[in-house]
Amino acid sequence: MTFEEIFALVKERKEQMPEGKSTTELFKKGSHGIGKKLVEEAAESWMAARYESKDDLALELSQTLYYVACMMAEKELSLEDVYAKL
After folding, report:
1. Residues near 63 by Cβ (< 8 Å), separated by ≥ 6?
2. What is the DSSP string of 17-59?
3. Are 72 and 7 a contacting pair, CB within 8 Å?
């Protein structure tokens, strides 16, 4: 799955807010709750890079990217908004 596909999925979840989805519960917590998850996954990525396998690191980084997409959707940032800053 590409980042663009992840972002599209997250935006869809934010619009539909399907019951029983962890992403729905996260969006209910707003940017504070999303930010906490983002920081948690970033820290776990750092620790995986330092002490774990490449596969573990890839998993943690993929989760970090998911929460980046969630924050973007929450704050109504587009891919272009972020890509313009790269």
Report:
1. 41, 44, 45
2. --TT-HHHHHHHHHHHHHHHHHHHHHHHHHHHHHHS-HHHHHH
3. yes
Beta carbons within 10 angstroms of residue 81's beta carbon: 11
The structure tokens listed for 14 are 């934010």
Find where tokens 């890839």 sit: 58
- The pair of structure tokens assigned to 62 is 């993929």
Q: Can you give the pTM of this predicted structure?
A: 0.94
The per-residue pLDDT for range 24-81, each reduced to its tens digit, is 999 999 999 999 999 999 999 999 999 999 999 999 999 999 999 999 999 999 999 9
